[in-house]
């Protein structure tokens, strides 16, 4: 299986949180299985444009056979479904879709019609691209006639790859490196922020008040304390470390490993250590801003000029009095730290920090703090597991920390290209 490494990594990180949230907020009235099956057709760049269309059609055929046209339309049906037949003519599909909308409940008709129109416009646009690609291919073959079958096949393959890359760029569910902005970067790591979801596509407008952040820290590093004005769901994509949370004068520390999910409330000061000597610590975060829609701001405490500490908003005399430390010590903390938010730590410093954090780990008669604050997604039995891969899912039933923010987390490890309906 040929995989574009950057695309695959970015897509996997994003899908950890985005998959479940998208279903609940954007396409709640469309069968999630059909939606996900069709999305998978566009993820793999080795598919040609025609193969992707055929893959989509197979998804629809399977869905129609499984559910039947009009399922769920009666009382107690649990919501509406839009089921298209095997006709590939967009005009006919639009007419059929609109007819199905008329059979929906009154409050669902408008949304159903809008979904039909969006599907029609997307299919018409794809047909135009396919026609242009075929015309260009014929012209190219005419110019290259007589230069050998082998060269012609090579050019055809390059055209297919170019078309696949173009489709990836147009697919609103695929995010690549160019869709990220580097917020902070040092020699020991970086923090990147994904563009706003609704700016990528109007299909993602239901995710307007969510932001995605990716953190990468080199081995044996320290991530400076900071807090956000946003609710955070954190997923450890790879590596291991120690995470510390400080809120209302209380500190909690616990070890984190690959697959761990942590809920962090807005305003909580967070800092962490990558204790591993060889592996990078990679963390994906889904943020829900609480101050302004789709706007969030990190606030760094004992930083300096890079990044700028929020302590600089206060006079040194006031800080000295409030923190009960000498004024020259305040000056050193605020002005001398200019190495960035992720800094290298020696093995002795890592050990000292780890021992200090272990002192903040408490045990209770009815379970540890760590067990309540951390949930390992990969330790849970997969929801689906077969020769094509595994799907792990967790919601508020498994991890109560997710209950009040209405978010579920899923992780898919796909080992072979397939229509998702075969799972």
UniProtKB/TrEMBL annotation:
<keyword id="KW-0175">Coiled coil</keyword>
<dbReference type="InterPro" id="IPR011051">
    <property type="entry name" value="RmlC_Cupin_sf"/>
</dbReference>
<feature type="compositionally biased region" description="Low complexity">
    <location>
        <begin position="152"/>
        <end position="169"/>
    </location>
</feature>
<keyword id="KW-0732">Signal</keyword>
<feature type="region of interest" description="Disordered">
    <location>
        <begin position="120"/>
        <end position="169"/>
    </location>
</feature>
<dbReference type="InterPro" id="IPR050253">
    <property type="entry name" value="Seed_Storage-Functional"/>
</dbReference>
<dbReference type="InterPro" id="IPR006045">
    <property type="entry name" value="Cupin_1"/>
</dbReference>
<feature type="coiled-coil region">
    <location>
        <begin position="91"/>
        <end position="118"/>
    </location>
</feature>
<dbReference type="InterPro" id="IPR014710">
    <property type="entry name" value="RmlC-like_jellyroll"/>
</dbReference>
<feature type="signal peptide">
    <location>
        <begin position="1"/>
        <end position="28"/>
    </location>
</feature>
<feature type="domain" description="Cupin type-1">
    <location>
        <begin position="172"/>
        <end position="331"/>
    </location>
</feature>
<protein>
    <recommendedName>
        <fullName>Cupin type-1 domain-containing protein</fullName>
    </recommendedName>
</protein>
């Amino acid at each position: 299986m040929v995989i574009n490494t950057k695309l695959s990594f970015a897509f996997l990180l994003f899908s950890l949180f985005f998959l479940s949230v998208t279903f609940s907020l954007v396409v709640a009235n469309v069968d999630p299985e059909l939606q996900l099956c069709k999305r998978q057709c566009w993820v793999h760049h080795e598919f040609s444009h025609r193969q992707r269309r055929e893959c989509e059609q197979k998804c629809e055929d399977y869905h129609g056979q499984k559910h039947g046209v009009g399922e769920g339309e009666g009382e107690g049906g649990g919501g509406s479904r839009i089921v298209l037949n095997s006709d590939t003519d967009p005009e006919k599909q639009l007419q059929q879709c609109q007819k199905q909308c008329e059979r929906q409940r009154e409050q669902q008709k408008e949304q159903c019609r809008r979904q039909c129109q969006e599907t029609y416009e997307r299919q018409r646009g794809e047909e135009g691209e396919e026609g242009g690609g075929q015309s260009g291919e014929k012209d190219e073959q005419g110019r290259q006639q007589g230069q050998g079958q082998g060269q012609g096949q090579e050019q055809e393959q390059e055209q297919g790859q170019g078309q696949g890359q173009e489709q990836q760029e147009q697919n609103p569910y695929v995010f690549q490196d160019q869709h990220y902005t580097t917020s902070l970067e040092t020699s020991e790591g970086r923090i990147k922020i994904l563009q706003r979801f609704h700016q990528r596509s109007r299909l993602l407008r239901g995710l307007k008040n969510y932001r995605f952040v990716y953190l990468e820290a080199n081995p044996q590093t320290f991530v400076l304390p900071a807090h956000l004005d946003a609710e955070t769901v954190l997923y450890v994509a790879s590596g291991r470390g120690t995470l510390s949370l400080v809120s209302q004068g209380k500190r909690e520390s616990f070890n984190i490993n690959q697959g761990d999910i942590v809920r962090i409330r807005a305003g909580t000061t967070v800092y962490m250590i990558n204790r591993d000597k060889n592996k990078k610590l990679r963390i994906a975060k889904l943020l829900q801003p609480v101050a302004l829609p789709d706007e969030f701001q990190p606030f760094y405490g004992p930083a300096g000029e890079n990044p700028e500490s929020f302590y600089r908003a206060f006079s040194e005399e006031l800080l000295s009095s409030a923190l009960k430390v000498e004024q020259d010590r305040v000056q050193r903390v605020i002005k001398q730290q200019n190495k960035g938010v992720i800094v290298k730590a020696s093995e002795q410093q890592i050990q000292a920090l780890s021992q200090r954090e272990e002192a903040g780990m408490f045990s209770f008669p009815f379970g540890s703090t760590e067990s309540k604050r951390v949930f390992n997604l990969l330790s849970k039995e997969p929801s689906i597991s077969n020769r094509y891969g595994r799907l792990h899912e967790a919601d508020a039933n498994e991890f109560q920390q997710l209950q009040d923010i209405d978010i579920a987390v899923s992780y898919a490890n796909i080992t072979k290209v397939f229509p998702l309906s075969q799972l």
